[in-house]
Design brief:
Helix content is 0%, strand content 41%.
């Protein structure tokens, strides 16, 4: 996985609340489909204007757009090809 610098200047979720707390994946392992650990999700990055999470930042500071993430059975998988039409987690103040 390569760092995606589109998200370097956006805000992190911080004190904002997700509309669906089950979508809070901070602290989760990000793995590829073969089970190889890519990293631990440290933060969720938000677009304040859209009020949605647009990326995650890993402990090593790499960023990954949510269009590459798939959450199944409490596991977070990375897919190199974006998932079209995937719902982005929404948040509120």
């Amino acid at each position: 996985m390569e760092h995606d610098d589109r998200f370097d200047n956006l805000e992190h979720l911080g004190e904002w609340s997700l509309e669906d707390e089950n979508q809070d994946i901070r602290g989760s392992e990000l793995v590829d489909r073969s089970g190889l650990l890519i990293g631990i999700i440290e933060e969720m990055i938000v677009d304040l204007a859209q009020e949605e999470v647009v990326a995650v930042r890993l402990e090593d500071r790499q960023a990954c757009g949510v269009e590459h993430l798939e959450i199944e059975d409490q596991q977070v998988f990375y897919r190199p090809a974006p998932l079209m039409g995937a719902e982005r987690p929404r948040f509120s103040s």
